[in-house]
Amino acid sequence: MLGSYIWMKETQDRINFKEKSYLLSKTFSPTIQHLLHRAGLLLKHPVHEVNYDAVPLPDSVLVKAAIEQLEATQNTSLIHHSWRSYFWGVAYSQINHWQYDAEAFLVAALLHDIGLVDQHESTNCQCFTLKSAIKAEHLCQHHHYTKNKIDLITDAICMHMNGFTDLSQPKEVIMLQKGTSCDVIASELYLIPTQFQERCLEDYPREKFNTVFKKLIKEEIRQHPNSRTAFLNTLGLTRTNNADSTESI
């Protein structure tokens, strides 16, 4: 499947014309809907009840190791983005009453972008999501995590850059896609109550995340001009949202 860990290892994220057409068809409708909503041209959607205090924070040895690996980047913008993506993803799970593996989802959220900050590291990976997934896989194997949960984490990390939500995928995969999209372009942020947003941003402030993210993506595209990231950037990955504020994240 496009974007999965197996697909990534087979293709090194080099997408062909057919795959570009598929991504375009899948991302066109949600992108237009998002832009119309930001322009105030769509009807308001109901705000759902979500509970910030009910967001689970697993305290396992694996989670602690993932936090340590993330914090070792010393990139505060990326660290806070990873945590916000987790909280936004959990908010969507509350809205939709989804059951999910909190530990696996948290590990995926914490490590999903870690490959962006070691772009000069010697590696054969042609995409930061694959580097992130491999790092997560190695960490999980070191802590004797089960294969099915490792596969879940690596797929969630690799597929979060597809640019669209595939509701047939495991909930953790959907949550990471939604959570990261919400944080980068404010996709469906309007569904999350303001109080939840404010508390999340108070705990994990943006601190010019958009500026840092755009710089990292620009370098990623320079190194890998034929990747999904490069193609999605032509569709507005780093241009849709230009503000670093509570109202427009």
Overview of this protein structure:
The chain is mainly alpha-helical and 249 residues long. It has one domain (5-234). 59% of the residues lie in helices and 0% in strands. It contains eleven helices and no strands. It has helices at residues 5-11, 17-38, 61-71, 76-96, 102-111, 128-142, 147-159, 171-185, 194-203, 209-223, 228-234. Helix 4 (76-96) packs antiparallel against helix 5, helix 4 runs antiparallel to helix 9 and helix 5 crosses helix 7 (147-159). The chain is globular and about 45 Å long. The model is unreliable at 245-249 (pLDDT under 50).
Summarize this structure briefly.
Helices cover 59% and strands 0% of the residues. The protein has 249 residues and is mostly helical.
Biggest β-sheet strands, sense, barrel? none
Following the backbone from N to C, one meets helices and strands in this order, namely HHHHHHHHHHH
Mean pLDDT: 85
**Rounded Rg:** 17 Å
Give the percentage of residues in beta strands.
Answer: under 5%
Structurally, the number of domains stands at: 1
Helices, by number, come to 11
* Weakly predicted, low-confidence segments: 245-249
Number of strands: 0
What is the 3D form? globular
Structural class, please? Answer: mainly alpha
Distance between the termini: 30 Å
Helix content: 55-70%
